[in-house]
Amino acid sequence: MKKVMMMLAFFAAVSTVNAQKFSKLGKSPTDIAHYPTNAAKRAFAKTAEQKKALEPKIRVIYARPYKKGREVFGTLLEFGKAWRVGADESTEILFMTDVMVGKTKVKAGRYSVIIIPTKDSWTLKINSENDGWGNYSYDASKDVASITVPTQKSSKEIEQLSVVLYEKSTNVVHLKIGWDTTVAEFPIMLK
Question: Contact at 8 Å (CB) between 143 and 167?
Fold first, then answer.
């Protein structure tokens, strides 16, 4: 009887494990941009000074849609309408220190990123609403900072949405976003 009970328990456990299915892979892979770029690899730094220099200050998590031959800005993404900066869930930015975005002080914390594209410029909105899907949870009354910058044309087509954070000058990190043939860079001042 004991063997029968043990076998039943084993089969119950196996069937429970198999009942939980993994989600299908998304069409737009998720990526992460850090400042400093190698912040996630700071454990491999040789000295305490190098580790300190690699302490993370900003992190962006976003999904990377493909262009797939589509006209992106002005067609797929309408000018003047909020865009989640990617696909799937809202793009997230984490400031590990207080920063200045435009003329607004933004406290360290986790925020969502929204872009309002126009033909010649993009407006970046840092928003306190998190964990949304697309723009469906975007509430402009929760914007904590905003900055508008001119766009630039890329000499090469950028097939997949790309984000990078880099130090343009002392304590000024640029959030650079590019897709199709459009690029915009938003300055963020570290405090």
Answer: no
* Tokens linked to 39: 């912040």
Gap between the Cα atoms of 123 and 114, Å rounded: 8
Task: Decide: 85 and 113 in contact? Cβ < 8 Å.
Answer: yes
Taking residues 149-175, report their average pLDDT: 96
pLDDT per position as a tens digit, 45-55: 999 999 999 99
Closest CA to 60 of 124, 147, 121, 104: 124
Radius of gyration of the chain from its Cα atoms, rounded to whole angstroms: 21
Confidence (pLDDT) at 106 = 98
- Write down the pTM of the prediction: 0.85
Q: What is the DSSP letter of 11?
A: H
Collect all residues with Cβ–Cβ distance below 8 Å to 122 and sequence separation of at least 6. 115, 116, 148, 149, 151, 177, 184
CB 41 within 8 A of CB 56: no
Place of tokens 């006209």: 71
Nearest to 64 by CA among 84, 82, 79, 78: 84
